[in-house]
Amino acid sequence: MTAAATATAPAAKAGSGRPSPLKLFLRNQLAAFGAGLLLVIILLVILTPFLPLQDPAATDPANRLLRPLAEGHLLGSDHLGRDILSRLLWGTGVSLLVGLSATSVAALFGSSIGILAGYFGGRADTLLMRGIDMLMAFPYILLALAIVAALGPGLLNALFAIAIVNIPFFARNIRGVTLGLAKREFIDAARLSGKSDLSILLTEVLPNVLPVIVITVSTTVGWMILETAGLSFLGLGAQPPDADLGSMLGEGRKLLITAPHVSVIPGVMIFLVVMSINLLGDGIRDLLDPRLKSGALARPAPMTEVDRPSAQTAPSAQAVAAMSAKQGSVLAVHDLETQFRIGSDVYKAVNRVSFDIRPNECLGLVGESGSGKSVTALSLLGLVATPPGRIVGGQVLLQGRDLLGLDAAGLRAVRGDGVAYIFQDPLTTLHPLFTIGDQIAEAIRSHKPVSYREAWASAVKLLDAVRIPNAAGRASAYPHELSGGMRQRVSIAMSLANDPELLIADEPTTALDVTVQAQVLKLLDQLRDDTDASLLFITHDFGVVSEVCHRVAVMYAGRIVEIGPTEEVLSAPAHPYTERLIACVPRLGEPGRRLEAIPGLPPAVNKLPPGCAFAERCPHAEDACRQGEIDLDAVNDAHQVRCIKPRNGQGGGAA
Ligand code: ADP
Ligand code: MG
Questions:
Q1: Of 442, 437, 443, 439, residue with least CA distance to 457
Q2: pLDDT score for 458
Q3: Which of 293, 326, 350 corresponds to the end of one domain?
Q4: Which ligand is the nearest neighbour of the Cα of 345?
């Protein structure tokens, strides 16, 4: 291993993961505040027996209703002369304990019922859920009152009442989650492996529903404490002389005008306890919710944040724009840089990428998964989510106009009109509840002021153009009624709706089987010809590139490492990475040819090594490859490579 490699190895290890959960949690200031406040309250409660406080039940009629800061009574005294501070601390302890216990009981029984009902389904589900429905049919607080009335007043009974009325809440939530899990393949696999139901429930189902249970608990504890306080307030919970926050509030109620502190003090404490628990609960939910795990607690903005050096937005940039217009490219990308900032890590997903696409040309963008192809494509129209994504440099010129300088409204006008996307999985990009004709018509009407009838007619024409048989009839079909290949044709029709200058197809055939893939490729190629649109075609498959692309750009770790005419790159690849990628494609009629996987993994884009990012995996690497920036050098007029020892076509496909 070289010195450079050994130096980067430990760093790569340390920075490989996301920020720790604690760090993420502390970054959420409200939740951290809640946790801190709750911690102080709990500490006070734990220390209460050891503090030099008066007996919370000791009455002293001579010193009734003392105001706060009176001698010997920091928070004053109540109508029987009892010390409010002492009662407050003891009462807070009782309220917390009862609230937490009630939540635990409700969570235990409710979740068990939910898991069993969801997992076994059928009769067990009917039986359990109808029982739960009966509980839910009573007004909530009335049911709690009825239960306490039946059991008799007292804290323990209030606890049971609150627990029982909250069981349905847990049962319903957890049943829903379990129901979804029970139909999943990994549960089937566990069944097929001969595991018993109990063991599946404990080892497969429970770990998956546990986060939901924790989230539900953390967001309901505060509510349960309030409910217990409510019952005590009505005189059904803590019985004199014992105090909890609710009963203190109840006792102070009659003196609200003459001695407001008696009720205000426990009221403020209830507020603080419940608020701190709710803030903490929200923080825990944000932490456990996989969609929020990246630390992005904010909603993504409608466009990617652009934060370029001022030189790139200044007049010199206009000159570049003019130049690209002169060359006649439809799209010219200069030094595009997109980064993801997660914690203190900066992921350079797109690293000074430049390319251009000429009228009616198809440019292929090829690379392994994770090389930055999709992020490049999404950056063009500001579709990368912010946070954590940011465009920190470069220009995207669509017919000479810098798209990165546009505001959200300007970009919206270009999206789907000047530039249209086709994505990998049409089932997720088409709306399941609208007919395909409706969806195409809507795409048209969002950019052109035409009537619905005209838009529908255009939609049918487009469906016909993408070779959907009986287009007029099929227009009123729903996405699920079509096959995968048909759906992708619909996506293509939709992308053509507004005669875009540029089509961006991100792995459009990856989800399709090989014969359908060939049809879709042929269709795309023909449509590009017929409509005069240009095409940016993203794929990881060199086999596909050779069928549709005039030129190809090879991407590795966020950079373009080679770009040139498809035939030339295929027959005489100049970069060792391209060479290895091409060697990975199986060819019919050459059974003896060895398929070589590329050893090693692409580097993490937050810890890029100096020099060539491919050096670690490259059989031809030498020390010079691991030092300094390596430029994109010309092999000939049309062909460039980022390598200090370009291959001269030996080892290429045709050689
Ligand atoms: P591909 O070439 O397979 O399309 P992508 O462009 O999707 O690769 O991803 C490029 C890099 O950017 C990857 O390292 C990926 O982990 C990172 N990346 C993509 N999207 C996000 C995101 N929302 N947050 C953080 N990192 C991301
Ligand atoms: Mg991708």
A1: 437
A2: 92
A3: 293
A4: 1
Ligand 1 centroid, distance to 340 Cα (angstroms): 9
Residues 6+ apart with CB under 8 A from 592: none
Strands of the sheet containing 633-636, edge to edge, are 419-422, 502-506, 534-539, 362-366, 551-556, 559-565, 639-641, 633-636
Question: Pocket of ligand 1, candidates 293, 345, 347: which has the most ligand atoms within 8 Å of its Cβ, to mutate?
Answer: 347
Which bound ligand lies closest to the C-alpha atom of 294? Answer: 1
222 pocket-lining for ligand 1 (C-beta < 6 Å)? no
Q: Is the pLDDT of residue 477 over 70?
A: yes
Q: What's the chain's average pLDDT?
A: 85
Determine the Cα–Cα distance for residues 343 and 96; give it in Å rounded to an integer. 35
SS3 for 83?
strand
pLDDT tens by residue, 419-461: 988 888 777 788 889 999 999 999 899 888 999 999 999 999 9
The reply to whether 573 and 544 lie within a common domain is: no
pLDDT confidence bin for 237, thresholds 50/70/90: confident
- Residue with CA at minimum distance from ligand 1 atom 18: 349
- Cα 350 to ligand 1 centre (Å): 9
Q: Which range, of 193-207, 228-242, 568-582, 641-655, averages the lowest pLDDT?
A: 641-655
Q: Does residue 343 line the site of ligand 1, with CB under 6 A? A: no
Percent above pLDDT 70 for the chain: 91
**Is there a single domain that holds both residue 352 and residue 248?**
no
pLDDT band at 361 (very low <50, low <70, confident <90, very high): very high
Distance 374 CA to ligand 1 centre (A): 7
The protein residue whose alpha carbon is closest to atom 14 in ligand 1 is 370
Q: Are 404 and 356 part of one and the same domain?
A: yes
**Cα 506 to ligand 2 centroid, rounded to whole Å:** 7
Q: Which of helix, strand or coil describes residue 341? A: strand
Does the Cβ of 347 fall within 6 Å of ligand 1? yes
Q: Are 345 and 479 part of one and the same domain? A: yes
pLDDT at residue 322 in the model: 59
DSSP state at residue 553: E
Assigned domain for 55 exists: no
> Does residue 439 lie in a domain region?
yes
**pTM for this prediction:** 0.66
For residues 353 and 394, the answer to whether their CB atoms sit within 8 Å is yes
601 and 463 assigned to the same domain: no
Compute, in angstroms, the gap from residue 446 CA to the centroid of ligand 2: 27
Q: What pLDDT does 102 receive?
A: 94
Which phi and psi angles does 338 have, rounded to 5°? -125, 130
Is 216 a domain residue?
Answer: yes
How far, in Å, is the centroid of ligand 2 from the Cα of 561? Answer: 17
Q: Are residues 288 and 166 in the same domain?
A: yes
Query: Which structural domain range is residue 314 located in?
Result: 305-551
Q: 203: helix, coil or strand? A: helix
Determine whether the shortest distance from the Cβ of 349 to ligand 1 is under 6 A.
yes
- pLDDT above 60: residue 218: yes
* 207 CB burial (10 A radius; 0-12, 13-18, 19+): exposed
Average pLDDT over residues 130-148: 88
CA of 207 to the centre of ligand 1 (A): 28
Q: With 60 as the cut, is the pLDDT of residue 293 above it?
A: no
Nearby residues for ligand 2 (ion, Cβ within 5 Å):
374
Tell which of 258, 293, 328 closes a domain.
Answer: 293
423 Cβ inside 6 Å of ligand 1: no
